[in-house]
Write a structure and sequence with these properties.
The complex is a heterodimer of chains A (95) and B (492). Chain A has 95 residues and is mostly helical. Chain A has a domain of 44 residues: Glu-tRNAGln amidotransferase C subunit, N-terminal domain (Histone, subunit A). Chain A contains 3 helices and 2 strands; from the N terminus they run H-H-H-E-E. In chain A, helix 1 crosses helix 2. The relative contact order of chain A is 0.08. Chain B has a domain of 294 residues: Amidase signature (AS) enzymes (Alpha-Beta Complex). Helix content of chain B is 39%, strand content 12%. Chain B contains 16 helices and 11 strands. Chain B has an 11-stranded mixed sheet with strand order 1-3-2-4-6-5-10-11-9-7-8, with helices on both faces. In chain B, a hairpin with a 2-residue loop joins strand 10 and strand 11. In chain B, helix 5 packs parallel to helix 6, helix 10 crosses helix 12 and helix 10 crosses helix 13. Chain B starts with 8 loop residues before the first helix and ends in a 16-residue tail after the last helix. The chains are: A mainly alpha (95), B alpha/beta (492). Chains A and B meet through helix 1 and helix 2 of A and helix 10, helix 11, helix 12, helix 13 and helix 14 of B.
């Protein structure tokens, strides 16, 4: 079980609005899932180097700059636009 | 002559080229099949009738004029709804993207179109491909064509059901931990997770970028090999793709199993339903009878794979899904005048419970104080798994296992227990963690339900999977398409 205060803290980091019922349920579920993961990991502490992304023995392709979406196309799926950009509410103080 | 929906993609393609059928007849028949069976199945979220009929008319004109035709001309293909289709709504199974029509198409969709595939529509999935049952779709329930009280598997449940019910001979799905192979096994289809880097992910709605791959499904190994040949290959739009030659997979299908070294690691049989283990042992005997050499290998760290996956995949998801904040696309919830509050409301109301659960696990695993214990430790374990597989592949060319630990389960059976649902991926997700290709092939039925067996190979060796997969298909038989509600003959 993860304490409700910690669930709310994680939800704030993830920018998720959760109702009280979700907070209680997630506290319980995350507790079970993380306990399972911790149990497995604790039994295998000898691991040394972390995994690193490779291309299965091949060279990664170069990251080449190429033209992207036209501005109008990029704006087309936006819920709200203003002039040449996305429209958003003014950032307030609350976080 | 077989009814069109009983034929493979390659048979349909030939019937179009020889003039036996027009592309228009095939397209209309596919639409009629969807109209007849999809009300009860729920495989499709969007049927692309008009564009498909326009494609068919164009192909008929070109055939008439003796013009060039692609290698999938006359073949209906279903596409999972997390692959972008220009101007056609692409939901990823999420209410948050209910009305999002992307301004571009995924590279794999462009390649299908260039090969003259007839794109039939977009198929249902678990929201953002997170799930093993397609129960987490925000839109509709997809049922298993073999039995309506059972799930089709997931997350590519719509694609697997569409193929198994004969609505399309082939389909595209996507994999992060088994989302092509597991529904293929549950529905009696063939499903491939290619080598990481084999297929472009450009235009695939990202879940966990170090694990995600697009994968083909079909009713025959040959159709899956053909679809892979069309969509595989380097793509400048996805730097994780590799400039590795794409072989002629068709040539592998006739090679047989002589001399192939095959192992069935004990660690991939733990916790498996004995009926499925028995089918897997049948498969091993079949390959041995065909000339394969049976080897023994160990995967000592496999017990850590599930825990490793359920740290890495949610961690990457929590980062990837940060983009769904109601600013650039999707449905925005009003959040007063405050920007952060708008993000929270949009994401809180837009995401379903499974997606929120995974974002929370991922955020937790990446947060200060836990990142070493969870995320970095998971990456260390991933490396040990990679080393296990590399060692195993010095002894064996192919690893064989059941695709799933159990037969398809009932709706709601695992909904209240996320860990039980996650455990369902235990045999498929190792291939995603280590980046190797893996193929699920039907191995007959148990209790009237399809059983899948899985083959894994070294990176870039999809050809070996098709080679052995064809031997198994020749022995067990490809699963014929089913009409929901109709009693099927024999096969048990």
């Amino acid at each position: 079980m993860i304490p409700e205060s910690e669930v709310r803290q994680i939800a704030a980091l993830a920018r998720l609005d959760l109702d009280d019922q979700e907070v209680r349920r997630l506290g319980q579920e995350l507790g079970q899932i993380l306990a399972y993961i911790e149990g497995i990991m604790a039994a295998l502490k000898e691991a040394d180097q972390p995994w690193q992304a490779r291309a299965n023995g091949r060279e990664l392709e170069a990251d080449i700059v190429a033209p992207g979406l036209e501005q109008a196309a990029a704006l087309q799926g936006a819920p709200a636009t203003e002039g040449p950009g996305f429209q958003v509410p003014f950032p307030g103080d609350a976080t | 002559m077989a009814l069109w929906w009983q034929e493979s993609g390659q048979e349909l393609h030939r019937s179009f080229l020889t003039g036996e059928r027009s592309a228009r007849e095939i397209a209309q028949a596919a639409l009629a099949r969807v109209a007849a069976v999809d009300t009860s199945l729920g495989a499709f979220l969007t049927v692309m009738a008009e564009p498909m009929l326009a494609q068919a008319a164009d192909q008929d004109r070109r055939r008439e004029a003796g013009g060039p035709l692609g290698r999938l001309a006359g073949v209906p293909v279903a596409v999972k709804d997390n692959l972008a289709t220009r101007g056609v709504v692409t939901t990823a199974g999420s209410a948050l993207l209910a009305n999002w029509a992307p301004p571009y198409s995924a590279t794999v969709v462009e390649r299908l179109l260039a090969a003259d595939a007839l794109i039939l529509g977009k198929t249902n999935l678990d929201e953002f491909a997170m799930g093993s049952s397609t129960e987490h779709s925000a839109f509709r329930k997809t049922v298993n064509p073999h039995r309506a009280d059972l799930v089709p598997g997931g997350s590519s449940g719509g694609s697997a059901a569409a193929v198994a019910a004969g609505m399309a001979p082939v389909a595209l799905g996507s994999e992060t931990g088994g989302s092509v192979r597991q529904p293929a096994a549950y529905c009696g289809a063939v499903g491939l997770k290619p080598t990481y880097g084999r297929i472009s992910r450009y235009g695939l709605v990202a879940f966990a970028s170090s694990l995600d791959q697009v994968g083909p499904l079909g009713r025959t190994v040959g159709d899956v090999a053909e679809l892979l040949a069309v969509i595989a290959g380097v793509d400048p739009a996805d730097p994780s793709t590799v400039d590795e030659p794409v072989p002629d997979y068709g040539e592998h299908l006739a090679r047989g199993a002589t001399g192939l070294r095959v192992a069935m690691p004990a660690e991939l049989r733990e916790g498996v339903d004995p009926a499925l283990s028995a089918r897997c042992a049948d498969a091993l005997r079949t390959l041995a009878t065909a000339g394969a050499v049976v080897k023994e290998v160990r995967l000592p760290h496999l017990a850590a794979a599930l825990a490793t996956y359920y740290v890495i995949a949610p961690a990457e998801a929590s980062s990837n899904l940060a983009r769904f904040d109601g600013v650039r696309y999707g449905v925005r919830q009003p959040g007063g005048d405050d920007l952060v509050e708008m993000y929270r409301q949009t994401r809180g109301r837009g995401f379903g419970p499974e997606v929120k659960r995974r974002i929370m696990i991922g955020t937790y695993a990446l947060s200060a104080g836990y990142v070493d214990a969870f995320y970095l430790q998971a990456q260390r374990l991933r490396r040990l798994l990679e080393e296990d597989f590399a060692r195993a592949f010095t002894e064996a060319d192919l690893l064989l296992s059941p695709t799933t630990p159990s037969l398809p389960f009932a709706f709601g059976e695992k909904s209240a227990d996320p860990l039980a649902m996650y455990a369902n991926d235990a045999l498929t997700l190792p291939a995603n963690l280590v980046g190797v290709p893996a193929l699920s092939v039907p191995a007959g039925k148990s209790g009237g339900l399809p059983v899948g067996v899985q083959l894994m190979a070294r990176p870039w060796q999809e050809g070996l999977l098709f080679q052995a997969g064809q031997v198994l298909e020749d022995h067990f038989g490809a699963m014929p398409p089913v009409t929901p509600g109709e009693r099927e003959p024999g096969h048990d």
